[in-house]
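Lecture notes, unit on protein representations.

Consider one protein chain, 271 amino acids long.
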Amino acid sequence: MKKRSLAFRIALFWATVFFGGSLQAADGAAAQRPSHTVSLLASGAVSAVHEQLEPFYRQELNLEVAASFGSSLPSVPTSVPRRLERGEAADVVLTSKDSLARLAAQGLVVPESQVDIMKSALGLAVRSGSPIPEIATEAQAAAALLRAGSIAYSSSLSGVYYETEMLKKMRIEEQVLPKSRKISGEKVGAVVARGEAEIGMQQVSELLAVPGIAFVGKLPESLQQYTVFSAGISASAKNPEAARALIVFLARSPNVRQVLSRNGLEPVHAQ
């Protein structure tokens, strides 16, 4: 195996400091020399971010990160929690904070390894070339949804909020829910781009990643629901030492913070 880069050794040093000597459950495996390939099982909200961070993984950590994505919602068969429960291999798990905590409680994620990475807001989008509605206030957002002939929303966490809380809070559930379509297996923006829905609602980072749509904006604060995404080391990780370095990099790197901000995600860990 070729010699590890200086950058990777530095990352491992800070990983040790950052985790404070925890991760006792992974100590035996961590004693092995780490591979330079790390598997990441992550929420779809960070798929575009991952692609943009790949050059930094190689340059700063000397790592290849093999990623696959799914919903954070356990009720979705292809979600991150369900796949981990079925025994899918991963070194790092990056999903909603609540889902990660449940996985840790099940013994599938090392509890002491959990680190908050980013916060995601909800937003709306329309097909490119369509009029852009005003949604700065709750009243304006309600009016835009009432005017729309069709609305697409995600089957993940944002969709649960839309179905069970948001429309009720706006008092437009009876008028809007019947013309709303729950989307599984693809991004909401793709449905809007094909003209199959006039308005789409999803995590901002997922909307911004789709060509053929115009991002309207974030929901107003009175309607907003933020999701915190956290990363942790899988209890069955084959490369826990490199996994630690990757998590610290995601939480601390200025380059990561810039990429997150460009994609509508807010870094949440202190610098």
